[in-house]
Amino acid sequence: MSRLRRGQVKIKTGPIVLLLTIGLAIVVTSVTPRVKEYLRTRKKESEVEGTSATGELKKALRIAGDPWSGYYIFRSEKFRSQLMASKVRYTYKEELDLAKRFEGLAKGEVDIAVTTIDGYTVNGTKSDYPGVITWVIDESYGGDAIVGSEKVQTLDDLDALPDLPRIAFAEGYPSEHLLNAMMTQFKKKVKPVPVASSKAALDLLKTGKVDAAVVWEPETTNAQKEVKGCRVLISTRDMVEFIVDVAVVSRKLVAQDPDLVEEALRAYFATLKYYQKDPARMTEAIAQDAGVPMETAQKIQQGIRFVNLPDNAFRWFGVGGPDASEKVSRIVQETIEIQRAQSRLTANPLKDPFSIVNRTILERAMKGEEGPLAKKFTTPVKSPEPTPEKPVAYRELTPDEWERSEKVGTLDVAPIYFSPGSSELAKDDRDFIDDVAKKISPYPRLRLRVIGHSSPGGDAKASAALSEERARVVAEYLGKAHGLTKARVQVLGKGGMAPLPRKPNEPTRGYQARCQRVEFILVSLD
């Protein structure tokens, strides 16, 4: 008998060999079909890659969005062909849930999410803002609106309803932000009625279940046709830089492959330029993409203002010299303020709005417009100079034109009171008027009616003159301190003809002081 070394155990090997042989046979029998299938599949893929354009596409780009016509460029074959020219494989995924869209960025399943700024600020919190705003796609110009029923012809009519007004809106869409802004800037108390879509909001208005609805095209046009007495109360045509669509790029992609991000940006703007050269082609493409008639597609197109490459750099991101302006971070901050005012955000989620903004890709693109990267594209990407930003020119209106102007709503501002018989502004009053200037800044297409009031009683003629003088003093301060042109402002004095309701047991002196006030009403000539 042989001796075993320390730690060795004598084992009979025959049974083990037999067991291993049987086990191996079982494994081979079960795995072989899978292995064969894998090899066949891989061989087929290799053949496809070797004999088609698939093998030439070295990178992949995944974009998530929704059916909004402003995102059509990303769905177009022209955009896809631009990327293929740069050997980039491309997919566009529709994801209606914004939070999931941004979760895709965080998980590395999406490279670019297209969204509105308000959509990102409120829904990006759940995934800790996994992307950066890299370029502006478009700005809504009348595409989104609040429309009222026959009994609601102005925003102030909402206050006159016997019950809390019900307003339908598409939850999670820019409609919600427009409604929040209206409630904040005009201090309206309403009962929001969340629905799934713009069409669903219009359906509730048509059946009389709500007093107003927040909609977008084509429902904005359809509402005025299909609902008796329906009127647009306010729309993004009256506003600027409010509902802004942007491309949010994965932070990881920006850090690891900025060339791919720049290629995507260049492909996008080359495609946009292709369509902007022929607006009729764009209308036809939108009609086909949205499945609507050409007339409706034209309305949709009129409600979208696309932003080209130079304007992105010079007007929105502050790239291009000392005269360039940076707007994106300001809009982010203003958006968050509105969302906090309506409790959509409980606190400011961003210490610095620039933390979700990236300028470097635009800087690279602008510096390299004639460089080797630009030459990869079939359509030259070089764009004209930035579009000059012209201030709105207000012509003088006749008294009849002012009379015909349509009331939009009364701004929510701190009351400006005057001492009895005085039209002199106190320092606190100037601070309140500064707030007025801030609140009207999003509405450059609307005019301002400044109305002075005095307490009831006394000489009617003298009261009217004093109240008009008070309104004039306020309007002049707006002009000197904030550049409001005279042609934009109508000054009126109502004297004691429109006193405030008196509170129960309110002392006479306090009531009369409260009636000596100035109010601010936005009006439209459309």
Structural class: alpha/beta
- Total beta strands: 16
Summed over residues and divided by their number, the pLDDT gives a mean of: 86
Our estimate of the beta-strand percent is: 15-25%
CATH homology-level superfamily of the largest domain: Periplasmic binding protein-like II
Question: What number of domains?
Answer: 3
What does this molecule look like?
The protein is α/β, with parallel strands linked by helices and 526 residues long. It has three domains: 61-141 and 242-376, D-Maltodextrin-Binding Protein, domain 2; 144-235, 3-Layer(aba) Sandwich (D-Maltodextrin-Binding Protein, domain 2), CATH 3.40.190.10; 399-524, 2-Layer Sandwich (60s Ribosomal Protein L30, Chain: A), CATH 3.30.1330.60. The protein is built from 20 helices and 16 strands. It starts with 13 loop residues before the first helix and ends with a strand.
Chart the SSEs and their pairings.
Blueprint: H1 14-51, E1 59-65, H2 72-75, H3 77-85, E2 88-94, H4 98-107, E3 112-116, H5 117-123, E4 131-140, E5 144-148, H6 157-160, E6 166-170, H7 174-185, E7 191-195, H8 198-206, E8 212-216, H9 219-226, E9 231-235, E10 244-250, H10 251-256, H11 258-276, H12 279-290, H13 294-302, E11 304-306, H14 309-316, H15 328-341, H16 360-367, H17 399-404, E12 406-410, E13 416-417, H18 427-440, E14 447-452, H19 460-482, E15 489-493, H20 508-515, E16 517-524
Parallel strand pairs: 1-2, 1-3, 6-7, 6-8, 14-15
Antiparallel strand pairs: 3-10, 4-10, 4-11, 5-8, 5-9, 12-16, 13-16, 14-16
Helix pairs in contact: 3-11, 5-15, 7-15, 11-16, 12-13, 18-19
